Amino acid sequence: MPAPRSATPELVLGPQHKSIPPALWGRAVGPAVAGAPRLSEFGTPLLTIDNGVLERNLALMARWTAERQLDLAPHGKTTMAPALWARLFDHGAAALTLATPWQVQLARSFGVEKIMLANTLVSPGGIDWISAELDGDPAFEFRSWVDGLDAVRILRQALAARGAVRPLEVIVELGGAGGRTGARTVDEAIAIARAVSAAPELRLVGAGGYEGALAHDRSASGLAAVRGYLRDLAQLHARLDRDGLYGTDLAVVTAGGSAYFDLVADELGALVDVDGARGIATRVVLRSGAYPIHDDGFYRSISPLDGAASDEPEHLESAMHAWVTIVSTPEPGLALFDAGKRDLPFDEGLPTAQLIRGRSDRDSARALDGAKVTALNDQHGFLRFPPPAAGELPVGTVLRLGLSHPCTAFDKWRLIPLIDDHTVTDPAVLDLVPTYF
User: Fold this and answer.
1) Predicted confidence (pLDDT) per residue in 160-188, tens digit
2) In 33-183, which ranges are E strands?
3) Which pTM value belongs to this model?
4) CB-hemisphere CA count at 13 Å for 94?
């Protein structure tokens, strides 16, 4: 397994880093983790990443996409952790997807040279900065989305005003009724593409969008909506090629969040044509971002590489867990722990109590039978359980929680311990992963 590496080993620890032990304050991350401190030395609440699970998830997705000749440009907004972005490229990522010009600026500061902005670029400052980066670094590969004629006009005006040398490569975005951004019909997208094709400041290189905005489960109706959208996206690509609107020899068709990438492979995989034998050479690029971390909630239930949605021989696992301490048992059947909305995700489901630290899986399962997290306040969580279990969950008990939705877990933490194995009694801390939100 590759050794973890810190993005900022020189970062000095202090009380501004949540739940880092005071014994490590004043020390840089590198020396602080050199002795592999134990998780029990850290305070709670705490979010952790399991290094072994992370590595297995990365390897699994790399194999899955390679077998289908798909490229992968994972969405970096999930973790906003450059140390983890580096490991995406270690496992063959073709590029990094990001959502805002500021995120692009951060990625560039860490040396990322291949970026897709899965959003329409319209802010004058963002356009100017990115254009300057392109002109100043021939190795920088950048593509942005565009979904309207107004956006084309704004891009042209801003790029012409600064005298841009390199044209901005853009991907026309197709959306869907009730979805997020994107042209609402293929005909509208074609009109946008024609405007791009006529603009010397721009170059049309692909078609794309986000199918995950059109469904939130794997019901028959949800899957049908996603498949219908992806077929429209394939039709858009065919028309762009037929009408000679691409300004490139290698077109990109991009889709694929973390819930329906199997459908993207089914519906768009046939477009892959590296040599251009059937028209313009084409690559299909997935942008799934949650798979390296995965979860024990929403993605576990919906991902095609886990749970009921999967018939694959290997599964993704959750690499993230929370550790909390029971601080009060004010009434029978109720325990309050020391983490709330400021610490844990809750938008795609509440945490689940998995394990009592220091007890076996069997003893933990017995003690937590019927226990359920029912609410989160700002800094407290409510654990309800059958009253007979009161003696099993006294004040001071440390629990491991399963979480749902890595995107809204990571944004609550600025420094996250990377541990060797979340299943052992007292994991070793291998690194501290900084995030930038």
Assistant:
1) 999 999 999 999 999 988 888 999 999 99
2) 46-50, 71-72, 96-98, 114-120, 141-146, 168-173
3) 0.95
4) 18
